[in-house]
Amino acid sequence: MLKKFGFQYWWPGESKFEIFVSAILTQQTSWKNVEKSIKLLKDNNLLKIEALSSIKLNKLENIIKSSGYYRQKAKKIKNICRSILKNYKSLDNLFNRDIQTLREILLNFNGIGRETADSIILYAAEKPIFVIDAYTKRIMYRVYNIDENIDYDLLRQYFEKELDTNLNLYKDIHAQFVALGKNYCKKNNPICDGCPLKNYCLYKKL
Ligand code: SF4
To answer: Is the CB of 146 under 6 A from ligand 1?
Structure first.
């Protein structure tokens, strides 16, 4: 995959806070829609934890409308920002925790599930935890016939056991799965010709 797609330099974002916010915005929507919301937040000088913790909800809803589920997402982002400032004073202070503590804190926020929490830990806090998403599950199912409904943490722990614990490796492999899933291993009608995994893939051999 690396040979095919090159190093992915993920996650796009100019700051930890931008990555943090975009990890929430990208839930159930495409990255293009997230980019529009992030641009508007930047244009309005609002991409700061202090600004988003005190913003009027309807203003934030309007700004992030392109990201879908904007009412829930606006409430979620504002509440989480407020809680971080109240309990940890800053995002950096929160990110100073060890991986397990940080993960437990993130998972306790309303609206942050395991994929979002782990994306934040890996790409914003820059700590090595492997991120699983629907692309990863689909590709692992097709290539190795691993149960597509496998538990998130079971698959995460499998990668963490098999790979060297390396931040950039974890970052890039997740990004490679996304590139493969978007360009070749699509949900319907995968494009196996040209796929870099086709020689290893059980699905292709069926
Ligand atoms: S060979 Fe086809 S099914 Fe297998 S990983 Fe590639 S695109 Fe998916």
So the answer is: no
